[in-house]
Amino acid sequence: MKRVVITGAGTINAIGKTVPETLEAMxxxxxxxxxxxxxxxxxxxxxxxxxxxxxxxxxxxxxxxMALYDRFTQFTLTAAREAIAQxxxxxxxxxxxxxxVVLGTAGGGVHTWDENYRTVYExxxxxxxxxxxxxxxxxxxxxxxxMAYNLKGPSFTVSTACASSNHAMAQAFQMVRLGMSEAMVxxxxxxxxxxxxxxxxxxxxxxxxxxxRPFSATRNGMVQGxxxxxxxxxxxxxxxARGAEILAEVAGFAMTSDASDIVMPSAQGAARAMxxxxxxxxxxxxxxxYINAHGTGTAANDKTECAAVADVFGxxxxxxxxxxxxxxxxxxxGGTGAVELLACIMALRDSVIAPTIGYEEFDPECALDVVxxxxxxxxxxxxxxxxxxxxxxNAVLALKRV
Amino acid sequence: xxxxxxVIEIIAEQAMLETSDxxxxxxxxxxxxxxxxxxxxxxxxxEAFDISxxxxxxxxxxxxxxxxxxxxxxxxxxxxxxxxxx
Lengths: 402, 86
Fold this sequence. Notes:
Chain A is an alpha/beta fold. Chain A has two domains: 4-241, Thiolase/Chalcone synthase (Peroxisomal Thiolase, Chain A, domain 1), CATH 3.40.47.10; 252-400, Peroxisomal Thiolase, Chain A, domain 1 (3-Layer(aba) Sandwich). Chain A is 37% helix and 19% strand. Chain A has a ten-stranded mixed beta sheet with strand order 5-4-6-7-1-8-14-13-9-10, sandwiched between helices. In chain A, strands 2-3 form a two-stranded antiparallel ribbon. Chain B has three helices and no strands. Chain B is mainly α and 86 residues long. Helix content of chain B is 51%, strand content 0%. Chain B is globular and about 35 Å long. Classes of the chains: A alpha/beta (402), B mainly alpha (86). The interface between A and B is small, with 8 and 11 residues.
């Protein structure tokens, strides 16, 4: 089996429009959650989100592109551009024929659904723009990345709610590891911060109206974010031979299904995924220095996740750090694992642990080192990135310092 | 603005050309408008004139709407406006 490394990273999210900006915000513990800018805000009960502000797609894309790109595709292309530029790869010939793009999204073109439902239901119009379908489809972002960068190998979109990106990156990892491709573009994106997207989440009554405070006894729900994270996963020898800068190694992954409840998380399912990722990476539990938590800030997730970590790591659970960067960028739903992978890369590469901001009060059910409020310097050799989705679908990636 | 001028404006915008580059003899191919671009132009024209154009992208030649040149498109639209507004 081949070794797989990350040679490019790109993002856009509420705390940064590039990877350096995002990592700086994480180091500083900056919060990107604020009142959302959307129409009919007065009809929403939940009015905060980790929204990408000051993003000007018209400056990046021409009129014809704009007609085809939903906001989730715009985010994806923005992040992909940064990641592929950093990797220095040009996809031509045999490399292009085998390289593909696997992305995660939960909702796909939610803005496009929202706008066009308005057109036909609210405004009563009987005609919609001809590109509604190619704009809203969940694979639109992956397809546009493939077209922009000549990626002609296996390309598709994975949709497993909040674990979409981790499932997608697990697929890309597997393809490079098995030698199917020398390089894969992977990650995910989401953009549900429109009236209908917020209203749908509001209905579930798990959203906070005032902030995301993972692991804190005062937490009162999750906060939606939006954006994208995209990476280049490359075969180690291929990357080394061309002198590429290696950000981290993807060492293993595991996916499990709780097979129990459509929304309630299971500590067992989460624990099996973390154990599985370490077994797959052939790494001992004691090697893990940092876990980027799923850490949504809901009562159920955070205590279940902490119980799972305690269960898997035993006494070592007290020696490792676990933080939730959702406190800063919000929950990017299907894109969340991709943006959060950046915190793992920062831990491994820069020895900086992103904090869990908004932490106010100790919760005995979350009695782990959650790196409260301030980033910390610490050398980490192995990091896990957790994603536990509605539907009980869990995906955990194990990363290693190179 | 006449029907002709409005259609030229829509087609020029779609083709990313100046209106002066669009003549009555131009075909969509001449102007670099592909099938998706044509569908989008038809939509824009329908919106502009509040008409419904019988255009089938599966087989444009089988449609009751002639798109072989800008002039034919303008003529077709004028006819549709007359029919649908009467």
